[in-house]
User: Which sequence fits this backbone?
């Protein structure tokens, strides 16, 4: 675990110097939210639509930056170096930690901007929304890290990432949209317990699949 | 010092219909310099990459053995050191930062004394805090050799270690290789005559070709 933490520290230090992912994601958030605001103009959108659009922004922001964890290693030619100094579990642990921190930071910015700019984005059961937010970010981080490792060696990384991510993240985002809708209606935790169970199971399955399959993905 | 053996049996590699090498075998357990020779494109790098665990073989068996027990492939990285022109270090970091991250990510006890000694030997000590992107290709190559040997692995693989180096740089590499060969198995993949002459035994890749 300590080795994975050092890999995470290396990635954070590298990101702060090169700004591969952070700049792309922040710009994406600003542009997407601006486009949504311009396109709705003076129209008042329903709170359900605002909730759905929130997760659309989250999905595409994740797609714009989370692949960098592996793609930057591949593009700069440092993936051999990483294979020579770390075991696959260390690499996955470090990259996962980096992506989780990145996805949580970016989604907090999105949530803050959304709450400030969309007056119909009103959550009646805030603890329920926060729970879904945490589970959603964790699921997105794990799935996106695994998919990034798969596409890193491909020639058409940019196109392949969202295309491959969509079917894998679809069950997660459909459930998140539903829980968000319920939290806007003021439903209780027990009302959405099946959806929350789906989110927890999704995280469990992706984590186990990740640590089992990563060995094969990482080597040639 | 650990009791280490590298054992390969009938190791073969092919890409599609093209056989790169066929049935390479051998066992190495005594310190010394061992060569992998062959012209450009013959498959030297492919063989040493497989030995280091960077690529997989198409057929055959490869074992890194410590105290008579084969080591799991996930742990091979700490038994080997690998330097080659196609290995790239993190150029946004300085030499010192690269060395620190490599030690910490490997999870081995950091030997900064040896790292500093090697930085001085390779004339990089005064530039140790500069970002690697400001280094010349020869300086980068020297830093890669330091990164490959500083954790004192029982097997060091050097694939064309003197590429990009001037004569002085080459001499420094040969001095380090000679010194380390007293207690380390060193694999030298090269087509330089002088370097092949340094080797006790050499695998000639051309002898393992098949149509």
Assistant:
């Amino acid at each position: 675990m300590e080795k994975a933490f050092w890999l995470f520290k290396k990635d954070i230090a590298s990101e702060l110097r090169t700004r591969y992912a952070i700049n792309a994601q922040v710009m994406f958030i600003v542009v997407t939210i601006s486009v949504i605001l311009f396109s709705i103009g003076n129209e008042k959108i329903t709170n359900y639509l605002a909730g759905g659009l929130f997760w659309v922004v989250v999905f595409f922001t994740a797609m714009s930056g989370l692949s960098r964890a592996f793609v930057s290693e591949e593009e700069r030619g440092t993936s051999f170096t990483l294979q020579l100094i770390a075991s696959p579990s260390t690499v996955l642990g470090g990259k996962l930690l980096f992506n989780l921190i990145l996805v949580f930071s970016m989604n907090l910015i999105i949530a803050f901007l959304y709450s400030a700019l969309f007056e119909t984005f009103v959550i009646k059961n805030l603890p329920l929304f926060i729970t879904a937010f945490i589970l959603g970010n964790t699921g997105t981080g794990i799935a996106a890290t695994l998919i990034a490792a798969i596409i890193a060696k491909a020639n058409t990384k940019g196109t392949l990432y969202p295309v491959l991510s969509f079917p894998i993240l679809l069950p997660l985002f459909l459930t998140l949209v539903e829980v968000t809708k319920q939290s806007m209606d003021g439903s209780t935790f027990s009302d959405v317990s099946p959806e929350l169970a789906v989110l927890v199971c999704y995280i469990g399955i992706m984590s186990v699949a990740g640590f089992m399959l990563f060995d094969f993905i990482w080597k040639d | 010092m650990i009791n280490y053996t590298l054992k390969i049996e009938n190791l073969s590699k092919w890409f599609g219909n093209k056989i790169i090498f066929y049935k390479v075998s051998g066992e190495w357990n005594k310190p010394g310099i061992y060569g992998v020779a062959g012209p450009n494109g013959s498959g030297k790098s492919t063989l040493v990459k497989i030995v280091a665990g960077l690529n997989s073989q198409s057929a055959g068996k490869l074992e890194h053995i410590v105290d008579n027990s084969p080591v799991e492939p996930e742990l091979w990285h700490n038994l080997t050191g690998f330097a080659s022109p196609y290995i790239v270090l993190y150029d946004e970091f300085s030499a010192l930062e690269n060395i620190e991250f490599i030690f910490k990510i490997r999870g081995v006890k950091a030997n900064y004394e040896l790292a500093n000694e090697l930085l001085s030997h390779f004339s990089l000590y005064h530039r140790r805090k500069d970002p690697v992107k400001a280094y010349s290709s020869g300086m980068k190559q020297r830093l890669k050799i330091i990164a490959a040997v500083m954790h004192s692995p029982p097997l060091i693989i050097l694939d064309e270690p003197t590429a990009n180096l001037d004569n002085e740089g080459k001499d420094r590499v040969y001095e380090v290789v000679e010194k380390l060969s007293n207690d380390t198995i060193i694999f030298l993949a090269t087509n330089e005559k002088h370097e092949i002459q340094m080797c006790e035994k050499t695998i000639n890749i051309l002898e393992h070709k098949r149509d």
In short: The mean pLDDT of chain A is 89. Residues 2-218 of chain A form one domain.
